Amino acid sequence: MAFGFVIERSGLLLQMLKPDALGSPERHFSFWIGLVFLMLDSWAACWSSWKYKRVVKAQKPIEIREGYASILAL
Fold this sequence. Notes:
Blueprint (H helix, E strand, L loop, with lengths): L1 H16 L7 H34 L16
Helix pairs in contact: 1-2
């Protein structure tokens, strides 16, 4: 997720280095690419949480260690 923020902010850095180019395409391109990375990372976090819940639910009670709170792992 941090990589998405870095890409998105790199457009701002390029704009600061070239202040005469207003509305430069690099700024817009990096914004959208960064946003795609952020959305992809958010989707991956939600998907992995869903998969974790399915795996824990599929385990038998004997397989879960005593005192283990699986909901806190999310």
